[in-house]
TrEMBL record:
InterPro entries: Cyt/Met_Dipeptidase, GSH_degradosome_Dug2, Peptidase_M20, Peptidase_M20_dimer, WD40/YVTN_repeat-like_dom_sf, WD40_PAC1, WD40_repeat_CS, WD40_repeat_dom_sf. It comes from Austropuccinia psidii MF-1. Residues 1-34 are annotated as: Disordered. WD repeats lie at residues 111-143, 353-372, 420-442, 514-538. GO terms for biological process: glutathione catabolic process; proteolysis. Pfam families: M20_dimer, Peptidase_M20, WD40. This is Peptidase M20 dimerisation domain-containing protein.
């Protein structure tokens, strides 16, 4: 269902947001504001072609870094971020506030307490306070650093104020301002709140003094308005371009704070009564205070000092609800009819060190209220009329639209310098000059080509505006469209950000990252990179730009790395005959990318019918040789661009070959194995290259047949050894950590022998009812000889099989003890251990990593799979994992001899065939080697903890070969975590792991230049 803006001659009484309906009161029109309270999909008018166009626009203009999802299927109604610690808060339709980290993009916690939608969020960075307003008629105050229950509940002076739609915080005066559904503006001083200690996160989070979160407040340096500063006036910005300064009603100072018990729905004012009271207020400003109080007291349902019920006040007593102290706003701290419609938006601005409150309403007006510097109250005892001329700039990109002045509600406000941005219903944005109170520009959101294609004439209401620190503006509307405007108000680009409405947005600049966050009715927050990284990187690589800030440049490369990875993943580079062309295109794309990053790259042809290899070389720019050689050191990185089949698409949460980001994870086939780590290494090298800090040569050798056994790889390397050059160390990144949080270094891999064992009869398939028991059955023969491979004690029966296993040494034993201690303390023993017959953690790891093993994978038969058929042949896939110091050739020969002997003992008329399909030798590194120590130190420096040195039970055939061929040590840096699901559905990797993995490689390359 899509909520559309409509007109109604008469609106029902005020309802809560929980009723899913809003009706807007106004003197001339009544509209339904565009709050989407249920998850929505694209309307039927949005075709698949438009979706594809929107996707292309995103790729060309805005980089979607990741999606943050709360998993509760609720719209994100409001957003705010804490730039000091790097957290973002999202208020949901259900009433919960979700908290994510902008360092890892992982969910941290959720704040629970509101009983209805969280309509607005604002934050006090200096006091570590988070404020949330809701449709439950309350505001809650939270500790924004130490998460838990709300610190306070703030309640309006009467229950019929409706939903609290907007908030504004004045840190200078410690005042909180509330905009309500009953057209009132209220305020409360929080100066007396108890102080809260901040969480000292300096050990874990690097603070950026240049980080800024732009919430729309004006700087103290902006122009000063003497008329406003010297008097108590409230300018009213109307659609006719005239600034009217209208005083507001005040309540009697003698009124006691009372707490009437009213029902928010049944006791609320009708629209007629509301408008009459509002007009009475404006017509009685010349009356005495006592007369004005009589007018206010005559409101239906309002309880005066003579009523028996008295309001709890913080000055009189403490009221507690659910263990949380309640703060009541006093009647005097409220302007009952600040507008003729809902107070949708509030914004605090500072004009020459004087605070002013800006309010936008459903009556299509904007008011600017003077704030008393002593009390924080809105001053309302005088009026003055200012005149200004409308000056709307028209251009080809901003044509005049019929009926443009027929505006609806002011739904959102933002400010930058002396400029105020206001978003209206029907897709209009007005730009106001706060020096002169004139409208200087009118922008039309609905003039977008995408907006017209979506047929959104009645659903293009501007719901959110965010202005960046450079004056750029992003506006989002109810059809999900977001438009980027430059500081001169020209449309730069546009894209469909959400499948539904773009309800909220905020901007954060941190550690050279410039992120736009949008919350939508599709139950998620999307994180967009709004940095100008594309041009920066191309200029860096071409040498047109000098590096001045390495952090900025490194972040530019990381952001671009994710864009390249997204395109890299889109190639279905499955190493089989059906995908040869896709593999070739993937290789060409990788080559082109590496060339852009500053490498000399080429394709090396594979064997006939096999995929090509990508060979790239980055030359160090330093002329100084290595301390130990007469030349620069040369590092060979080995990786692969081919992937395994995706399997059943139904098992994937998103298309396997479309990279998607969710809560800090990147999903897609190949993101972990091995496209993601390969690009991370390439960007690490390029970062150093552009910093003029690459003092080693780096050769990247990326093959396309690793998942199919690396057929022909060794021959190609030997044939091109001169082109590759002398190698000092081989770098590999093709495995995962032991767990999720602690980084690891891999120093050992098992070898493998893959064999096919077949038993074939000379006769065709037979019927078991006719021939059963009277013939040698191939399946039975096969099962017998395979069963003989393993004894009843589980030991493999091949002659001399265990004699070559290297005994564990003291230093290695210490590494295992460290792993056991880590697993025990963390409680992360692993799910596979729980299902193992081995109950000791250490013995379990030894069995997985450094003990040989035999596995039977499947048995295939010929003929129909029918219970009465005796197949004429049967075959089985067998693998043996070998370890140091077993001989690959000896074990393969022993397997064949054992099976032949076992089959011979059967005296069968059938025929046995043993075929060795593929072999890979074991590999064992040395954690004490200089290169291993160097990269271990780099891991510790980047992650803040020492890595665990682990071994793997799998095999990578090219690693031992490259070591032997180039007489160079190999080191293995895994980037993925244990739950990456490589080769499985929903393969994924943490964005943080790729970023830090790239940083580790960069540190390592700098360090080894001095070895």
């Amino acid at each position: 269902m899509t909520c559309q803006s409509t007109r109604a001659p008469n609106s029902p009484p005020i309802k809560s947001s929980s009723s899913r309906i809003y009706r807007q009161q106004s003197t001339s029109k009544s509209r339904v504001p565009p709050f989407i309270t249920t998850p929505t999909k694209y309307s039927n008018s949005l075709s698949l072609g438009l979706l594809q166009i929107a996707t292309l626009i995103v790729m060309d203009s805005m980089n979607l870094l990741t999606t943050l999802s709360s998993q509760d299927k609720e719209s994100i109604m409001s957003l705010v971020s804490d730039y000091e610690v790097g957290n973002v808060f999202g208020g949901s339709q259900s009433g919960d506030i979700h908290v994510w980290s902008l360092y890892t993009f992982f969910p941290i916690t959720r704040l629970v307490g509101h009983q209805s939608s969280v309509l607005c969020l604002t934050i006090s960075i200096d006091r570590s306070l988070l404020f949330s307003s809701s449709g439950d008629n309350t505001v809650r105050v939270w500790d924004s650093r130490q998460f838990g229950n709300a610190l306070y509940i703030v309640k309006p002076p009467n229950d019929n104020c409706g939903d609290v739609l907007s908030l504004a915080w004045c840190s200078r005066l410690n005042m909180l301002y509330l905009g309500c559904q009953d057209a009132s503006i209220q305020w409360i001083s929080l100066q007396c709140l108890k102080t809260h200690s901040l969480v000292n996160s300096s050990k874990n989070i690097e603070h950026d003094s240049n980080s800024k979160l732009h919430s729309g407040s004006l700087s103290p340096e902006t122009s000063f308005i003497p008329e406003l500063a010297g008097s108590s006036i409230s300018p009213l910005l109307t659609t006719d371009g005239i600034s009217h300064l209208i005083p507001s009603a005040c309540s009697s100072p003698h009124l006691h704070s009372c707490r009437p018990v009213h029902h928010k729905f049944f006791d609320s004012l009708s629209q007629a009564d509301l408008l009459k009271a509002a007009r009475r207020r404006d017509s009685n400003y010349n009356l005495s205070p006592q007369s004005r109080c009589q007018v206010i007291d005559s409101r239906p349902g309002f309880k005066t000092e003579n009523d028996q019920l008295e309001r709890f006040s913080t000055a009189d007593s403490i009221h507690v609800e659910g263990g949380i102290e309640v703060l009541f706003i006093e009647n005097k701290d409220s302007i009952s009819y600040a507008h003729f419609g809902y107070t949708y938006s509030l914004l605090l601005v500072n004009l020459n060190d004087q605070p002013f409150l800006v309010s936008g309403s459903g009556d299509a007006t904007i008011k600017i209220w003077t704030v008393d510097l002593q009390t924080g109250a809105l001053i309302r005892n005088s009026s003055k009329l200012l005149s200004a001329t409308l000056s709307t700039h028209l251009s080809p990109s901003n044509p005049c639209s019929p009926g443009e002045e027929d505006l609806g509600a002011v739904l959102t406000l933002a400010a930058y310098g002396p400029t105020l941005y206001a978003g209206y219903q029907d897709g209009i944005i007005k730009i106001w000059d706060l020096d002169t109170f004139t409208c200087i520009r009118t922008l039309f959101h609905r003039e977008s080509s995408l907006s017209r294609s979506i047929n959104s004439k009645t659903m293009s209401d501007v719901l959110t505006i965010t202005v960046l620190d450079n004056g750029e503006m992003f506006s989002g509307c109810s059809n999900g469209l977001v438009i980027r405007w430059d500081p001169s108000f020209h449309r730069v680009c546009e894209w469909v950000s959400h499948q539904g409405s773009a309800l909220a947005s905020c901007f954060i600049s941190r550690q050279a990252k410039r992120l736009l966050l949008t919350g939508g009715s599709d139950n998620c927050i999307k994180v967009w990179d709004v940095s100008h990284a594309n041009n920066m990187v191309s200029r860096l690589v071409s040498g047109e730009m000098e590096i001045k800030d390495p952090a900025v440049m490194a972040m530019a490369f990381q952001d671009r790395m994710f864009r390249h990875l997204s395109q890299f993943v889109s190639y279905r580079s499955i190493s089989n005959d059906a995908h040869r062309e896709e593999c070739r295109q993937a290789a060409l794309y990788l080559k082109k990318t590496l060339v852009k990053l500053g490498a000399l790259a080429q394709l090396l042809p594979g064997e006939p019918g096999r995929n090509p290899l990508v060979l790239a070389r980055f030359d160090g720019k330093s002329s100084s040789p290595s301390p130990t050689t007469s030349r620069r050191k040369r590092v060979l990185y080995y990786g692969h661009y081919d992937v395994v089949q995706a399997g059943d698409e139904k098992d994937w949460k998103a298309p396997a070959f479309v990279m998607t980001g969710r809560n800090g994870w990147l999903y897609g086939r190949g993101v972990s194995d091995n496209k993601g780590p390969t690009l991370a290494v390439a960007y690490a090298v390029t970062t150093l290259l552009e910093q003029r800090a690459l003092d080693v040569d780096v050769v990247m050798l990326v093959e396309g047949e690793e998942e199919a056994g690396s057929a022909g790889f060794q021959k190609i390397v030997i044939d091109n050894k001169v082109l590759i050059g002398d190698i000092d160390v081989v770098l590999v990144s093709n495995s995962c950590w032991l767990g999720e949080e602690t980084p690891c270094m891999t120093f050992g891999l098992r070898g493998v022998i893959h064999a096919t064992v077949s038993v074939t009869s000379q006769r065709p398939n037979l019927h078991s009812g006719i021939h059963g028991g009277a013939t040698h059955e191939p399946v039975l023969d096969l099962v017998r000889i395979l069963g003989a491979l393993v004894g009843t004690d589980g030991r493999i029966q091949l002659d001399g099989f265990y004699s070559g296993v290297r005994p564990i040494h003291e230093e290695e034993d210490k590494l295992y003890n460290e792993i056991v201690d880590h697993l025990t303390k963390s409680g992360n023993v692993g799910g596979s251990f729980q299902d193992s017959p081995i109950t000791d953690i250490k013995e379990y790891l030894l069995a997985k990593w450094r003990q040989p093993a035999l596995s039977l994978h499947k048995i295939d038969v010929t003929g129909p799979a029918h219970a009465t058929v005796i197949p004429s042949s049967a075959q089985s896939a067998v693998s043996i994992r070998i370890v140091p110091d077993q001989s690959l050739e000896q074990i393969a020969s022993s397997l064949e001899k054992f099976l032949q002997a076992a089959f011979k003992s059967l005296n069968s008329s059938n025929t046995l065939q043993v075929e060795i399909n593929h072999t890979a030798d074991w590999w064992l590194g040395d954690p004490k080697d200089a290169y291993s120590v160097a990269i271990g130190d780099c891991v510790e420096e980047e992650w803040g903890t020492k890595p665990l040195w682990i071994r793997e039970g799998g095999s990578i055939p090219s690693v031992p070969f490259l070591e032997d061929e180039f007489n160079a040590k190999a080191i293995h840096l895994p980037m993925g975590s244990a739950s990456d699901s490589a080769h499985l559905s929903n393969e994924r990797i943490k964005m943080l792991n790729l970023e830090k993995g790239s940083n580790v490689v960069a540190k390592f390359l700098k360090k080894i230049a001095k070895i």
